[in-house]
Structures are given as C-alpha cells and as structure tokens.
Amino acid sequence: MVNSVLHKAETRGDANHGWLHSRHTFSFADYYDPERVNFGMLRVLNDDSVEAGMGFGTHPHNNMEIISIPIEGDLEHKDNMGNVSVIRKGDIQVMSAGTGITHSEYNKNKDKAVKFLQIWVIPNIRNVKPRYDQITLNMADRHNKLQQILSPNPDDPGVWIYQNAWFHLGHFDKGFSIDYTIKAAGNGVYAFILSGELTINGQELKTRDGFGVWNTDKISLKADSESEFLLMEVPMK
C-alpha cells in the first residue's frame, strides 16, 4: 500500500529572528512537532532568508550530510578546512560533517536578502573525515527534465553524500508530465515545491508545499502551471 504525507506551506515552523527568517518543514531548533521530526533519513529542510550583510557566525556540525541550494542572492561560506567560497543560484554545496567541522555562512550582498534551502540527511557511515564540495549546475538541464544533483556515487552527475539518496531538480512547463522511478528498494521520495503548482500521485501541491511518498516503485508528476521543485529520494529506515 502506497503511503504519503502532506505538509502544506503554511503549517511549517516559523522562526523570524529579524536578520533571519526560517521556515522549518521538520522539527528544528525551537520548533518541535513529534509528527514532523524527519522523513526517513531526511532530517532537516529549512527554507532560509538572510538579510543583507547578515549571517550565521562560526558554529559546529558533526555526523550529518549538509546540502545547501541557493534560490536567490549570494551566500559566502568559510570553514575550518580552509574553504572560502560563494554559492549562487545554480550552485549546490555539500558538506560531510563526519568527525566535526565548524563553518560560517553570510549574505555576500549588502543590498538584498539571500534565500537558500538548507537540507540535512542522516549519513549511513559515522565519523568520516569531513569534506566539502561545491558545483555549478546547468539550469537548462532541468527544463522539462529531472536534473540529478546528488547521489551516493562520486562518479554520477551532481554532488555525492554518504547515504543511499538521490536528489533531482525540475523546472516544468504547464502541462508537462513525467514518472519518477524509485532508485533503491525501501526508499521514499519527498517533494518540495519551489514555485508554481504540481500534482504528484493525484495530490495537488502549491508553492512551498512538501509531499512525501513511500512504499511505491514510482511516482507521477504533472505540472499544473510553470513550476520548479526539488525531489529528494532517501532511505526510509
């Protein structure tokens, strides 16, 4: 039997710190909902907006796969491994925190907010040597296609993480439809709508809605308007 869970945009946790406005799909920081701790190995999905010139000071992470996907603006990153970089729309950043890292993230712009998704995936190997990677994607490769941006395999397109997970971005024209086939038995797919309206397995979704599906081999997607979205396939156990 196919299982699903719907998280409407307005039901997410809402943390507004002035310099940072974050919407939490899953329990994070002061937002806790026992029904929304995770989706399988997908632990955090934060929809962050950081005001001009502001940011997160140096802070630690360990034993987590951390993925950042910029949506608007430029985000500057520094870490204790010596990496200093700026990520922009079209880029994807990954950190395997492993035995421990410290890093900071700041809005590079002095005149506009930076908006990005911060995603945490629980790794399948603990205490690995920390690592950092960043790539620039060709955004044309997601027009009426599913562009793979993350996998478990360093030789595949996109970045890789220590988990049997695959992420895809799509930018569909109204009316376009496609099926997505689950890549690994026991995995589920969590969809997050960046903009527009999309129907997945008959469930109508709007901007910033989240929808998880598991116990199935494939899901159907149909764009009800021009739409952009992120698919995150992760192990459920």
Structure, explained:
The mean pLDDT is 97. This protein has two domains: 12-136, Jelly Rolls (Sandwich), CATH 2.60.120.10; 139-235, Jelly Rolls. It has strands spanning 3-7, 13-16, 20-24, 42-50, 55-61, 65-72, 74-79, 84-88, 91-96, 101-107, 114-121, 131-136, 146-151, 159-160, 166-172, 177-181, 187-195, 198-200, 203-205, 210-214, 218-223, 227-235. The two termini are 17 Å apart. The chain has no helices and 22 strands.
Give a short overview.
It contains no helices and 22 strands.
Summarize the topology.
Elements: E1 3-7, E2 13-16, E3 20-24, E4 42-50, E5 55-61, E6 65-72, E7 74-79, E8 84-88, E9 91-96, E10 101-107, E11 114-121, E12 131-136, E13 146-151, E14 159-160, E15 166-172, E16 177-181, E17 187-195, E18 198-200, E19 203-205, E20 210-214, E21 218-223, E22 227-235
Parallel strand pairs: 13-14
Antiparallel strand pairs: 1-20, 2-3, 3-4, 4-11, 5-10, 6-9, 6-11, 7-8, 7-10, 9-12, 13-15, 15-22, 16-21, 17-20, 17-22, 18-19, 18-21
